[in-house]
Amino acid sequence: MRSLVHGGTTVLLTTQYLEEADRLADRVSVVDGGRVVAEGTPGELKSRAGRDRIDVVVRDAARLDEAVRALPFGAGETDVDRDRRLISAPVRDRMASLAEVVRALEAAGIEAEDVALRRPTLDEAFLRLTEDEEKKEVAV
Q1: Phi-psi category of residue 117: left, alpha or beta, with phi > 0 → left and psi -120 to 50 → alpha
Q2: Selection from 47, 50, 58 nearest residue 80 by Cα
Q3: Which of helix, strand or coil describes residue 107?
Q4: DSSP symbol at 51
């Protein structure tokens, strides 16, 4: 497919695998309920998904709740995946947030298996762009 595009051929790809769309597409249209709700480059759509995120994987699952309380994230902004021992939250300042998280974990004596800064994914952008207005009101 890449060689076709590089050769000047226009390719229309329909997929539910957004990671594939992110890698291959110059432009993406998000369709919800049979209508296009957003269009743009993968980067443009991801920027509409919100701020960068910091992900923390806690080594000891038993300390996950304690880690959530110790971290400097706002209430309601934090996502917790207990199966993966993952805490994820949006950040305003990438480097300051990273330093704050590391210091907070150290002060609480909680060991992290991984701490990572990342940009929103196209999957997160899709979910945000297709979120029901009713759900958005409840989330606020």
Answers
A1: beta
A2: 58
A3: helix
A4: S
Coil vs helix vs strand at 45: helix
8 Å CB contact between 2 and 24? yes
Residue type, 69: R
Please give the single-letter amino acid code of residue 106: E
Give the start-end residues of each E strand in the chain.
28-32, 35-40, 53-58, 79-81, 86-90, 112-118
pTM over 0.85: no
Distance CA 47, CA 32 (A): 19
Q: What is the pLDDT of residues 25-80, one digit of tens each?
A: 889 999 999 999 999 999 999 988 878 889 999 999 999 999 999 998 866 678 99
